[in-house]
Amino acid sequence: MVELWFQFCMIWSICCTVDEDGRKKIDTYIREMEGTFPNKDSIYEYYVDPKGKTWVHWEEKLKHGWKYNPRYGLYLNKQRVKLFYFKT
After folding, report:
1. Number of H helices, E strands in the chain
2. What is the pLDDT of residues 19-46, one digit of tens each?
3. How many domains does the chain divide into?
4. What is each CA distance from 79 to 32, 36, 58, 74, in whole angstroms?
């Protein structure tokens, strides 16, 4: 579990400062070194689930069947879910 949290913190502190091309290179490098990430999407699309002790896709934070409500004026997508995760 400590390894997962270490990787997560490294990805979202040091590795998040690069551009899109750099993210692709880091994604490839980390996957070559550590094989615990699912094959779908990049390493930036996952967070640590403490209960399951595994990587979970950010989209799982969105409620199933979730639909945009224009009354709220906020589009809740994966990027916003990530921001809310770090804010709390």
Report:
1. 3, 2
2. 889 989 999 998 888 878 888 888 888 9
3. 1
4. 25, 22, 9, 12
